[in-house]
């Protein structure tokens, strides 16, 4: 049984590679939207939405949260409850979906399955300038707009993983395979991801 977790830097072809891999391997692709839907099933009382990054990265910063909770803000208490619940909820969700072969496209999925014997953890990265060019080309925006978007999303991804798991998403030691997406087309990346599983099976 193979489980791939794909953590992709913004601007890299993470979704395309994950979709190709899932289709080739005949397994489901589970992205953020699918995982959030499962979160609602498992914990319907928690107000989890697709904007988890904004929540973890500081919709209420530490000082504001402290002041709000001190003042008895109901909304702040809900925020605090969700922040405390998210790491364990994320682990529960990822462990639930890892019962069967799957491709999990989520920045922090590797952290939830670090000891899973069948998991291959993949990090797609690329130089910032290359990712800016790719974003500008795909989103049909100018380069300055693309640079702001890439820098914002980079920060959000780093803070999300650090906030939930106290890990550095860019640490290559956390992954089975780290691929520079600027050096390989998606079909070649697919070959590398399949080879990583084959090597693990024969090791």
CATH first level: which class? Alpha Beta
What's the number of structural domains? 1
The CATH architecture can be given as: 3-Layer(aba) Sandwich
Number of H- or I-type helical stretches: 9
Helix-strand category: alpha/beta
Q: If strands are numbered along the chain, what order do they take across the biggest sheet?
A: 2-3-1-4-5
In CATH, what is the homologous superfamily?
P-loop containing nucleotide triphosphate hydrolases
CATH names the topology as: Rossmann fold
**Cα-based radius of gyration, to the nearest Å:** 18 Å
Strand content is 5-15%
Query: Major beta sheet, specifics?
Result: 5 strands, parallel
Order of helix and strand elements from N to C terminus:
EHEHHHHEHEHHEH
Give the distance, in angstroms, between the N- and C-terminal Cα atoms.
14 Å
Number of extended strands: 5
Taken from the alpha-carbon principal axes, the silhouette is: globular
Which regions have little confidence, pLDDT < 50, spanning 5+ residues? Answer: 50-77
**Helix content class:** 55-70%
Residue-averaged pLDDT: 79
């Amino acid at each position: 049984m193979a489980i791939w977790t794909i953590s992709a830097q913004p601007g890299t072809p993470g979704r395309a590679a994950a979709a190709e891999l899932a289709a080739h391997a005949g397994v489901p692709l589970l992205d953020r939207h699918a995982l959030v839907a499962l979160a609602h099933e498992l914990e319907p009382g928690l107000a989890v939405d697709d904007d988890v990054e904004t929540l973890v990265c500081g919709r209420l910063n530490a000082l504001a949260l402290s002041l709000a909770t001190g003042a008895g803000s109901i909304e702040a208490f809900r925020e605090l409850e969700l922040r405390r619940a998210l790491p364990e909820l994320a682990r529960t969700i990822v462990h639930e979906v890892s019962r069967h072969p799957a491709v999990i496209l989520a920045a922090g999925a590797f952290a939830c399955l670090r000891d899973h014997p069948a998991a291959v953890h993949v990090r797609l990265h690329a130089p910032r300038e290359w990712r800016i060019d790719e974003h500008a080309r795909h989103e049909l925006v100018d380069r300055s707009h693309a640079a702001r978007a890439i820098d914002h999303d980079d920060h959000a991804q780093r803070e999300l993983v650090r906030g939930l798991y106290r890990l550095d998403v860019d640490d290559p030691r956390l992954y089975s395979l780290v691929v520079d997406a600027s050096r390989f087309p998606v079909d070649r990346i697919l070959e590398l991801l399949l080879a990583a599983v084959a090597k693990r099976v024969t090791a």
